[in-house]
């Protein structure tokens, strides 16, 4: 069986490449190897390989899994939770005259598709619109769906929400699926919607995981305690073990963000910060000195 090439090698980028560098490499190679422009026998296979590499590396979760496990991350039964492979989901086909291109979207058929980002193009045929200076080499094309943007709070994006937006002068109520991230593009029947997620003072997101900081006192760290911490659903009680050190990370399994593409749910990580008092009474100083001596 022929082994797959490294995705970074396919796009000609380093493993430290930024999102912008990944997108730029994809755009350049897509123009070069599209089968309707490049008539070499290997063009179709190259173009498919380029799109497969980009679909993985342009997604934060998939890229992290690929960096850790390689191609094995997307094999059946790899344990990444449901339809997580690069070609799981629903097939979508663009047709333009005699040409067509098939790609994958993710959704359950009940709401918006979470669309594949074609390197900044709205669809594969827009690659040619740029190459030919705005002209369409395929003749007249279907009317392009309008694009809108929406700003969500962190919790709205994490838990999902309903919003009312203005589409073509008409108000329309839409459902935003739980787990969308900043920059996600949702594909509705009549339009595309790009999501902007506002930063949050309490929660910080990394993939599907959520990070929060919890400040405790020195006695609580030394003796142990039960403290409350926020999660995206509600506050929960957290047990602090005696002798907990500053900077300790405590994992709350399943308290993170649900993937909009599968059944995976991330975790919450609580980073413990120990509060050191700036001013002490004479009695407090005496007690600490006794503690130090003991």
What does it look like?
This protein is an alpha+beta fold and 294 residues long. The protein has three domains: 7-144, Helix Hairpins; 145-200, Sandwich (HSP40/DNAj peptide-binding domain), CATH 2.60.260; 204-278, Urease metallochaperone UreE, N-terminal domain (HSP40/DNAj peptide-binding domain), CATH 2.60.260. Helices cover 26% and strands 28% of the residues. It contains eight helices and 14 strands. It has a four-stranded mixed beta sheet with strand order 3-7-8-4. A hairpin with a 4-residue loop joins strand 7 and strand 8. Helix 2 (19-33) runs antiparallel to helix 3. The chain is elongated, with a radius of gyration of 25 Å. The model is unreliable at 79-91, 94-110, 119-123 and 128-142 (pLDDT under 50).
As a percent range, the share of helical residues equals 25-40%
Please state the overall shape, judged from the principal axes of the Cα atoms. Answer: elongated
Residue ranges: pLDDT <50 for 5 or more in a row? 79-91, 94-110, 119-123, 128-142
Domain count: the total is 3
> How are strands sequenced across the largest beta sheet?
3-7-8-4
Question: How would you name the CATH homologous superfamily of the largest domain?
Answer: DnaJ domain
Beta strand count = 14
């Amino acid at each position: 069986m022929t082994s797959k090439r490294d995705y970074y090698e396919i796009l000609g980028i380093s493993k430290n490449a930024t999102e912008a560098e990944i997108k730029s490499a994809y755009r350049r190679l897509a123009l070069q190897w599209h089968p309707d422009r490049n008539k070499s026998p290997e063009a179709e296979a190259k173009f498919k390989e380029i799109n497969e590499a980009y679909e993985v590396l342009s997604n934060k979760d998939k890229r992290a899994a690929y960096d850790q496990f390689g191609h094995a991350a997307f094999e059946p039964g790899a344990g990444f939770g449901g339809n997580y492979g690069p070609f799981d989901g629903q097939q979508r086909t663009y047709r333009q005259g005699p040409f067509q291109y098939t790609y994958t979207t993710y959704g359950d058929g009940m709401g918006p598709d979470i669309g594949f980002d074609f390197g900044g193009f709205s669809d594969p045929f827009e690659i040619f619109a740029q190459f030919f200076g705005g002209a369409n080499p395929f003749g007249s094309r279907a009317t392009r769906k309008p694009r809108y943007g929406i700003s969500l709070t962190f919790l709205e994006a994490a838990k999902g929400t309903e919003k009312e937006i203005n589409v073509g002068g008409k108000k329309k109520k839409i459902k935003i699926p739980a787990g969308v991230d900043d920059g996600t593009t949702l594909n509705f029947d009549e339009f595309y919607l790009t999501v902007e997620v506002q930063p949050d003072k309490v929660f910080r997101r990394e993939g599907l995981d959520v990070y929060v900081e919890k400040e405790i006192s020195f006695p609580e760290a030394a003796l142990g305690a039960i403290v409350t911490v926020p999660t995206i659903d509600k506050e929960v009680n957290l047990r602090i073990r005696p002798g907990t050190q500053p900077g300790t990370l405590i994992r709350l399994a399943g308290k993170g963000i649900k993937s909009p593409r599968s059944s995976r749910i991330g975790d919450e990580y609580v980073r413990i910060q120990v509060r050191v008092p700036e001013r002490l009474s004479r009695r407090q100083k005496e007690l600490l000195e006794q503690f130090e001596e003991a």
